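User: Fold this; tokens only.

Assistant: Input:
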Amino acid sequence: MSARTPHTPPPFRDQQLPFAKRVDDLLSRLTLDEKMGWLHQFAPAVERLGIAAFRTGQEALHGVAWMGPATVFPQAVGLGATWNTDLVRRVGEAVSKEVRAMRARDDRVGLNVWAPTVNLLRHPLWGRNEEGYSEDPKLTSAIATAYTRGLRGDHPTYWRTAPVLKHWLAHNNETGRDVTSSSVRPRVLHEYDLRAFRETVEAGTVAGVMPAYNLVNGRPNHVSPYLREHLRTWTDQELLVCSDAGAPSNLVDSEHYFDTHEEATAAAILAGVDSFTDHGTDSSKITARIQGALKQGLLTEADIDAAVRRQLSVRFRLGEFDPQHDPYATTDDFDTPAHRALAQEAAEQAIVLLKNSDDLLPLAPGTRVAVVGLLADECKRDWYSGTLLHRSTPLEGLRERFGAEHVQFAEGVDRIRLKTSAGTFLHVPEADADDEVRGAEGALDPALLAGRTDLPPLTTDATGTELSLVDWGEGVLTLRAPDGRYLSVAEDGHVRASADQPGGWVVQETFRLEPHENGHILRHIGTGRPLSTAPDGLKVSDGNGEIFEVVVVERGEDAVNRVASQADVVLVVAGNDPHINGRETEDRTTLALPAHQERLLHAARTANPNTVLALVSAYPYTVDPSDLPAVLWTAHGGQAAGTALARILAGDVSPAGRLPQTWYAADEDLPDLLDYDVIGSRQTYLYFEGTPLFPFGHGLSYASFFYDDLTTRVEDGTLHVSFTVGNTGDVTADEVVQVYTRAMESSVPRPRRELAAHQRLTLAPGEVTEIAFRVPVSAFAFWDVAQGRQRVAPGLHEILVGASSEDIRLARTVDLDGEPSVPRPVMVGGLDAVNFDEQSDTEIVDRAKTSGDSVAPVAGRRGELVLRDCDFGKGAAGITVEAAGEGTVELSLGDGPVLAELTLSPGTAGPYDYATVSAPVAVPAGVHDVRLGLRGTVRLARVAFSV
């Protein structure tokens, strides 16, 4: 029959056609209203076409999050510490299989996963340090590519899940995260921040990205031209850009970047945002804004089509329209023995041995161990964890491995009673609290989960209840009842012993004891209100609150001393709670270990010199290891954390984790949190010139290894590096070999050393193997601001091979061909201010709301830019600046005097209204360094010279 019958499927259902044609067909069948509705995170069903509802976004950073029980792997920074791409790929594969299995029984689980986070761990005080992989772009992209490859699956056509990289771009601060601007110079942009995204996108394992809340160079990431100028040029594949939650509204409400939501929404769509995560499940506001933008001529239907096309591209790849051909449709792998074993393997490989004097570790069989510390019997979840199906604490792991009779325990909490002004004590009523775990039932938005109100509030009586008090630092306290439940404030304002752990978007389990008269006010941090006693129980108050006397029953260090003095070895387990003092929305203020935990560590060390410190944390600390024979670090290791730590301590597994970021010795070594210029302020192992506490890539083993026979050759644009490594110890162990490069003859600041390749391998005692790497010569390039592109400089480069960035075992030099530097032809092209070589007291700002950069002085200071090697030919007689605002631009050459001052006064009408100002100047012939001083509120875009 030549005519189509009613049963003939439309072309978008024809799996024989390429996806692009099918997308075009489906797009042509959708009405404008239907297409607009699909730009919200919760895209409604189109029943007339038989198309189901779809939502973007399923958190899956280290396991399926928020949707109830799932396998929980180590935190992302812990996966980064494994330096093992094969392992991380297998973790991604397991996570994606559980996503599929969970979706089969709960359609709230989405297949568009928002993971991983590839923001570089530039600054260790960033509250979300736990979410990233490394401070190094090469290692980050390697781990991210492995994880997304596992999430994606290996079918050539269909994807198991569709991963979205977070958070585009230069996002490392929670303080004012939706209103602060990261000033990112071109070299840092191209050599550092973009690299972590680029290599993973180019690998073809990514479905899209999520812009970050912050601004970059004065412009919100959700209207960033870099989405078009960079991201979409890295692949021929359609990429879906999903907004972060609430960020579209921020463009008007907090950032005040646009006057109306219609303008803001249109600008975001034109910049490349395809899915709007805003107002929860209510799509009406976003749809109304899009409709308004269309009516005002700010958008066309073609702009809507482009965004919908990118979303459909992902949906087709996920097999939604070909269920009978989707190879992943019947995946049901969930909490399998293989997944449990993988969670343990990942936890073991993430543990880093930082110090091991006199081979105290591994512990001999029969060793009597005192396990102490606030995290000794904890298996912590974080904001992006699933609910634990299984849990293993260090205490449980040690008891299982060494025998309960050989393990003693002291948590080290301060045990207190709180006495009221009436002479009574706070009392926790008896109640059947059961084992309810926050979020076990799953939630699309766990920030909306309410506290429990089914339990009785605290009351007062003559004797009271002994509470466990922990000071997590900076006076932030938790209080726990004898049954293990934390005191928590529910929506009705009453205080109950109801929470299994501190948690939630606004943590309801933290308090402060504030000195007041002859006692203390107990203030609830989440509401900011003091507690008061009332006939219906303890609750937050609008008044002054109750005055409590803190009656100490036992200090934590006394309990630690008691068990430590009776043991052969003490294991102090210290670290952080992932919901307190360093998390999403809250940066840390110090690298120091909280004072409460320092007290416990000191008590243990004083009682027993054989004290091992195990740091379980989402970020680095400054600790003094000088009088500790052994120190280990692991991120929160997921469900198998305790078992893994015990097996490492017992020597069942030799540790081989490596630090994915520099551990600094003091807060003074850190730049300002908002200083994103890793080059100028000498940040990360790439540029840091001080002595770190522990360097990037550091990690010890129970074995020893030799390196030898380094050879290098350059051929057809590739550097070939080979060497041998052998295990000279008496146990089978992993080694992580690391190759670094260093430009020896550079005209611009280059990294002290930079990771070029790495490999984790297992070697038996006496085993020797040859390692070979191929490093493209392009990896030696830097961003030449004078030419506006990547350039490999000719000359000598050092190839460094070793076990960490500071433990170099072998070195050779290679002489690379490249392009020599050339002076800037300023008489022809002028100078863009943003292409400076050096700067002080300036910030990069947006030249226009759509694109372009200018440079302004930091408010109240005189800024300065240095642009080197400027070729003035036969000399210049005039200078013209293009600038906005009000103020003065000063020109000088080298360290010489000011040759010209150009003043905008009165200033321009607005920050985007540019004017040109000219002045005579006598610049002699030849090549000179140009120095530009900036005063006032001037925003300098360009400088030109004339004869």
